[in-house]
């Protein structure tokens, strides 16, 4: 039996607490409502998933997403909702999926000014060693943005990575920046 989540705006909420704990503990997916920094999966609260997380779990067959009228939401419908509301949704999702498939724990990096904070073991077990910013290949970026992102990531002791997403099935290129003292 798949876990059921309800699509509410740009989030999918799992209201069943047992299923919420199971999804969270399977890879640190989502955020338990009302619990800012859960230490483990021992919580009694609904779980809120981003569209990116929900799409990944839907594609994996772990999650069933329904709308407010209990009608199933397809992968295509979830992608369309994401594309309509989130700039570069497909590129962001591609990087999320690639990093998850490589075994990383991928969380929002918004508080660091990045698309993702990436963990090797998980939040609460370590600090995220990487911040990832997603760009389409050919997209212009101001060099000052790179310096700002690099300085911020350095100040919070994280490596700054640009993920350059090409068209179609072309591979994503990852560029890691390191500060050096001359």
Q: Please, could you describe this protein's structure?
A:
The protein is α+β, with helices and mostly antiparallel strands and 182 residues long. The chain has two domains: 86 residues, tRNA intron endonuclease, N-terminal domain (MutS, DNA mismatch repair protein, domain I, 3-Layer(aba) Sandwich); 95 residues, Trna Endonuclease, Chain: A, domain 1 (3-Layer(aba) Sandwich). The chain has five helices and ten strands; from the N terminus they run E-E-H-E-E-H-E-H-H-E-E-E-H-E-E. It has a five-stranded mixed β-sheet, with helices on one face. A five-stranded mixed β-sheet has the order 6-7-8-9-10. A hairpin with a 7-residue loop joins strand 6 and strand 7. The radius of gyration is 17 Å and the shape is globular.
Number of strands: 10
The mean pLDDT is: 92
Please report which band the strand proportion falls in: under 5%, 5-15%, 15-25%, 25-35%, 35-45% or over 45%. 25-35%
Number of domains: 2
Return the structural class. alpha+beta
N-to-C span: 58 Å
By DSSP (H or I, 4+ residues per run), the number of helices equals 5
Helix content: 25-40%
General shape: globular
Determine the CATH topology of the largest domain.
Trna Endonuclease, Chain: A, domain 1
Low-confidence stretches: none
Q: State the oligomer.
A: single chain
Q: So, CATH architecture of the largest domain?
A: 3-Layer(aba) Sandwich
N-to-C SSE series? EEHEEHEHHEEEHEE
* Rg estimate, integer Å: 17 Å
Enumerate the strands of the largest sheet in spatial order, edge to edge or round the barrel.
3-4-2-1-5
């Amino acid at each position: 039996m798949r876990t059921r989540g309800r699509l509410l705006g740009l989030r999918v909420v799992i209201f069943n607490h047992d299923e919420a704990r199971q999804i969270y503990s399977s890879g640190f997916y989502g955020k338990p409502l009302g619990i800012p920094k859960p230490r483990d999966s021992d919580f009694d609260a609904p779980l809120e998933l981003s569209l990116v997380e929900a799409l990944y779990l839907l594609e994996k067959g772990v999650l069933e997403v329904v709308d407010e009228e209990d009608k199933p939401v397809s992968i295509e419908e979830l992608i369309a909702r994401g594309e309509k509301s989130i700039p570069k949704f497909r590129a962001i999702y591609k990087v999320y999926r690639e990093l998850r498939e490589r075994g990383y724990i991928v969380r929002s990096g918004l508080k660091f000014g990045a698309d993702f904070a990436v963990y090797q073991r998980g939040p609460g077990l370590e600090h995220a060693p990487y911040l990832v910013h997603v760009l389409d290949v050919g997209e212009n970026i101001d060099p000052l943005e790179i310096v700002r992102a690099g300085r911020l990531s350095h100040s919070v002791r994280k490596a700054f990575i640009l993920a350059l997403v090409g068209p179609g099935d072309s591979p994503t290129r990852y560029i890691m920046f390191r500060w050096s003292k001359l």
